[in-house]
């Protein structure tokens, strides 16, 4: 019997129990990508549209410029933006709103409003429960979790 228990303990010590909380992403670092398309479903910044990706500026609700990482674009139409401000602790279970002004060129500026809500799971990880995105007050995205491409067609 002792030999059986010893063999069983050796066999069980070789089993790996995976932690369900390991490597679970935190939603606070989420950077959605706003994908601006022309009416013909091509990038708004392709030649001939009059818009240039390098001239786009994004300002937050306090009028501060939001840095746009230049080298991280998957598509030439992508504008990534931070869902939550750096250094701020997110409020849980409360609908939060961030508003941006998107300056495409001097004579063309648009409004981007994002509403979202965080929760915390059993692992202590913050999750994105819901996200709504409005572009010029028109709802363009209604999603959950980590879907991060927000496609907007600009006429």
Notes on the protein architecture:
The mean pLDDT is about 75. The protein has one helix and eight strands. The radius of gyration is 22 Å and the shape is elongated. The chain has one helix spanning about 1-15; strands at about 35-40, 55-60, 80, 95-105, 110-120, 125-135, 140-145, 150-155. The chain has one domain (about 25-155). A hairpin with a 2-residue loop joins β6 (about 125-135) and β7 (about 140-145). About 10% of the residues lie in helices and about 35% in strands. This is Lipoprotein. It comes from Hymenobacter cellulosilyticus.
What's the short story on this structure?
This is Lipoprotein. With 155 residues, this protein is mainly β.
Helix and strand arrangement:
Blueprint: H1 2-13, E1 33-38, E2 57-59, E3 78-80, E4 96-105, E5 108-120, E6 126-135, E7 138-143, E8 149-154
Parallel strand pairs: 1-8
Antiparallel strand pairs: 1-3, 2-4, 4-5, 5-6, 6-7
- Can you tell me the number of structural domains? 1
Q: Give the overall form.
A: elongated
Rg measurement, Å: 22 Å
Q: Which regions contain 5 or more consecutive residues with pLDDT less than 50?
A: none
Terminus-to-terminus distance: 79 Å
The number of helical elements comes to 1
The SSE string, one letter per element, is HEEEEEEEE
Give the total of beta strands.
8
Structural class: mainly beta
Instruction: Identify the strand order in the major beta sheet.
Output: 2-4-5-6-7
Residue fraction in strands: 35-45%
Instruction: Classify the helix fraction into a percent range.
Output: under 10%
Biggest sheet architecture? 5 strands, antiparallel
Roughly what is the average pLDDT, rounded to an integer? 74
Protein name: Lipoprotein
Organism: Hymenobacter cellulosilyticus
């Amino acid at each position: 019997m002792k030999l059986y228990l010893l063999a069983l303990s050796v066999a069980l010590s070789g089993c790996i129990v995976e932690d369900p909380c390991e490597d679970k992403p935190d939603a606070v670092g989420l950077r959605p990508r706003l994908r601006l398309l022309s009416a013909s479903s091509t990038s708004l910044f392709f030649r001939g549209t009059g818009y240039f990706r390098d001239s786009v500026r994004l300002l937050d609700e306090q009028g501060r410029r939001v840095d746009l990482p230049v080298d991280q674009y998957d598509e030439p139409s992508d504008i990534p933006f931070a869902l939550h401000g750096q250094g701020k602790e997110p409020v849980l279970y409360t609908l939060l709103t961030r508003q941006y002004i998107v300056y495409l060129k001097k004579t063309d500026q648009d409004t981007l409003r994002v509403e979202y809500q965080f929760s915390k799971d059993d692992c202590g990880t913050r999750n994105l429960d819901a996200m709504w995105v409005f572009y010029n007050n028109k709802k363009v995205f209604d999603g959950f979790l980590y879907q991060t491409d927000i496609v907007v067609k600009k006429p």
